[in-house]
User: What shape does this take?
Amino acid sequence: MPAQGTTQPIHGNYHGSYYSKRPFVQDARLAVLSPTLFQNARVLDVGCNEGWVTCEIARSWRASKVVGVDIDDTLIRAAWKRRRTVWSSQEPRQHEQVADDVETQVSSNKRKRKADLVDEAVRCTQPDYFPMSCEHMFGPLPIPAAAPASNSASHEFPHNITFRTADWVRDEIPEDTEGYDVVLAFSISKWIHLNGGDDGITRFFRRVYSVLKSGGAFVLEPQEWETYAKAKRMDATLRETAKDLKLRPDDFEHILREMGFGSAEHLGRIGEGGFRRSVDIYYKLG
Assistant: This one.
């Protein structure tokens, strides 16, 4: 069941992330990924927290659909608010305003239609154009009516993003049926492991494999074994589960390869201080 009113963030569901004082964040973990990874892709962000990364992918990485899921309904409500904040702070550039700007590009780029260039220019508008004080003083801007699914605008921010409250390791969500091109798991493997044991983390990896399309990417930020100790101290159930753990984060690559993923692409250790962790990407074979 989704966590509600939990006094301890035993699922890693911390409230008030370190992003909260910044109007828009370019996450360093996304910056090491290929610029084309999310382009026109269906993306699932498991353990999305307040939706900062989810919104960045939907807003700036040209994904066609981004789904954020978290076990904590309070965080999901905050994520919906985050969507509106990002929408309210971006540069208000309309199609008719950029049409003239791309006119000269049409003749030099025969492979792209003018409409495609206009759409690209709109997506490249500045994300933090208005300061946060504008929303505090005047309130957020209303979200425009959603375009029909057949319209390209339905695949652009803010209509290309949605959020769900669910224990995704155990429960399916409606968006799963269409599958995903990319699944992200940032800062959650430890919590899945400590709550569900070795069977839980293995079940999670199987779920990821089952919803990824052939050739799809699984982006994993595995938390190191040494960090489990602090998490175990916050809850007796986690301590008891930890006693029976046989798997270690170093075993995850072997498990994923046995399931049908290729070898990991290790993109290096990203972040600062206690948030400096490895980011790995696995592609589904077949």
